[in-house]
Amino acid sequence: MEVRTASPPFDSSLADVILRSADGVHFHVVKAILRLASPIFNDMFTLPQRIPDADDVELSNADPTKVPQESTFQNPQIPIVDMAETSYVLDRLLRYCYPTVCPRVTDLQAYCETFAVARKFEMEFACQMLTRDFPGLDKAISDGPMKAYTLACKYRLGDVASLAAKEALRKSLDDLLAEDVDIDDMSTQEYDAILQYHRKCRIMCRDLVSQDDFRWLQNGGAYGLSICQCETSSRSFRVRFGATLASVTALPSTITPPHISAAAASFNLRRPKWWFDHIDKIADVFKHKSPLAPEIFDVSPTLKIIESSRCPHCQKTGPEELRTFTADLQREINDIATKGIPLNIAF
């Protein structure tokens, strides 16, 4: 393999150790700097060192605590340590240790690979700076959630896997499976985990709107305490008033029946037909597409129906009720995605 010397500052004559990358690039570095930056390097360089007679020892990815022995190569005065990482990853990682400029990360795979190595060497500062230097991280995950999840599995990055799984809720299952990913980078269990997460989130979100039980709303009293006289549905809209029993004694007669108890103030409301048409549309999206599909939060078609109605009450209160409901729904979906359904992966 051709031996090359890394670019400055990793070509210094002050170096007292050489890190040799997997692709044969020599990084001439100062032990003291690496010892300050990484507990793993500190432990490695404080052990008694010897010049072996056999082959160089590789620093294993599978066991980051394994201490490599040093060997001579070309210059017997400067020991060489073989590294499992590529020169690209080592260059970026070492720049976070040295007083030098580190370019921004522009590629998700490079971020994941370098972050995993920084974590392996317990370089907390490098982990923080990597995330800072990749302003496009969220967009990269959003653009290809299945790819991001696959990379997270490959490099054992739990936070990235969780973000990717949540972003996957913006796509249908068919769209997710159509992404070009290397399925060999994750186990069967990890592959199944994101599919089950997506399915269970869709079911829980669909249940929010398919049973006409809306007691999860933050303030059910904001939805139609004064009901219009236009076309209504035969279905009722169960809400939680979110107040004391004494404060709901003057409910209008259009509430049928009250079903109010001191323990949980809730009641059923009749709603206009356009309201339940809107709810049914959302339930259908949950069933056939995804929990965070854009059309779930698009109220413009229903607003047009309200505007064209002849009911002055709907025209006055309907738009605000619809927007309030959409905000509450989005909050509830986020809670399901982040706290309601676990992503069953082992890292």
Automatic annotation (TrEMBL):
InterPro entries: BTB/POZ_dom, SKP1/BTB/POZ_sf
Residue ranges occupied by any BTB domain in the UniProt entry: 15-98
Alphabetical list of Pfam families matching this protein: BTB (PF00651)
Annotated PROSITE patterns: BTB (PS50097)
Protein name according to UniProt: BTB domain-containing protein
Top-level taxonomy: Eukaryota, Fungi, Dikarya, Basidiomycota, Agaricomycotina
